[in-house]
Design a protein that fits this description.
alpha/beta; Multidrug-efflux Transporter Regulator, Chain: A, Domain 2; Methyltransferase, Methionine Synthase (B12-binding Domains), Chain A, domain 1; Rossmann fold; 3 domains; 5-stranded parallel sheet; two-stranded antiparallel sheet; 12 helices; 54% helix; globular
Length: 299
């Protein structure tokens, strides 16, 4: 469940508009907590994002709300030079993937945001990350490698994803109640979207996550583990060049007994060092695996 501030950040709709849409159009009816504050579930966020898209496309608020309430919502308009077929009752994950890549190639920020709206509405956060977001980021990188997407477009697209993941991470904060975990990348490593997605997924499961981000030196990992009273440290190892720095972090944390568990993930995180547990490649499976590993460190 999300507060109105978190819902506004995740959907891009100001809090005042959320209240107005609720009062005038009944597009969503949020729950209330014991203190009377609004709470939005993921279905409500999808409805709000859909209404925002329709309004951005030129619909009146009343007509957009009526379409959302009735379920009679047309799919997002196709990019002028990147049309793709839709499947079933709406665009597929592949459709939103292609739209996002096309928008990145044309540095179309509105198109990127609309594609992210559609992609993140395909299911739960974990499902979306595994089934849509990671394949989309891979396609983005391949487009850049082929010279079809300029560095500026690739950076703009990555930052759009980073903003969306950061909002989801913040929104999951109220659920943090479990063991302390630090998540980040070793010194020199910059590609943090996978680590941020994983940090969000485990925060949604109730873990008390301190997310460190990219390029974190060994001494800072040590400080973070101590200050957060962390039980586990998760190292994202994205490229083979990151392995040496990651090994240095793992050895310091294990040798000093700062955490009970050190795990590695990422495309280059297999068999990082003796005593380091390798997490499953999918976000959902890795999050469940970490829960089980933490249960094994109790007591």
């Amino acid at each position: 469940m999300y507060t109105i501030k978190q819902a506004a950040r995740l959907t891009g709709v100001p809090e005042a508009s959320l209240r107005g849409w609720e009062r005038r159009y009944g597009v969503v009816v949020p729950l209330r907590n014991d203190s009377g504050y609004r709470l939005y579930d993921e279905a409500a966020l999808v409805a709000i994002s859909t209404m925002r898209r329709l309004v951005d496309d030129g619909w009146s608020a009343a007509a957009a709300a009526a379409a959302v309430r009735s379920g009679d919502v047309p799919p997002p308009s196709q990019p002028a030079d990147g049309t793709v077929a839709t499947e079933g009752d709406g665009p597929s994950a592949a459709t939103y993937l292609q739209r996002f890549v096309v928008a990145a190639a044309h540095m179309d920020t509105a198109g990127m945001e609309a594609s992210l709206d559609g992609g993140f509405a395909l299911g739960s956060f974990e499902h979306v990350v595994d089934a849509w977001l990671f394949p989309t980021l891979e396609a983005l990188g391949e487009g850049w490698a082929r010279g079809e997407i300029d560095v500026a477009g690739e950076h703009a697209a990555s930052h759009a994803v980073h903003r969306r993941l950061s909002a989801a991470f913040d929104a999951a904060g109220s659920r943090s109640r479990g063991p302390g975990v630090v998540v980040g990348l070793p010194a020199g490593s910059q590609h943090e979207l996978g680590a941020l997605a994983f940090a969000t997924a485990i925060r949604r499961r109730g873990l008390d996550v301190l997310y460190l981000g990219a390029n974190v030196p060994v001494s800072s990992w040590e400080t973070a583990a101590r200050s957060h009273a962390a039980r586990a440290a998760i190292l994202a190892v994205v490229t083979p060049e990151d392995r040496a720095a990651a090994v240095a972090v793992a050895r310091r944390l294990m040798d000093d007994g700062l955490v009970s568990l050190v795990c590695s993930g990422g495309s280059a995180g297999d068999e990082l060092a003796p005593g380091v547990r390798t997490l499953a490649p999918s976000i959902s499976a890795a999050a469940e695996q970490l829960d089980q590993l933490l249960e094994g460190t109790d007591g």
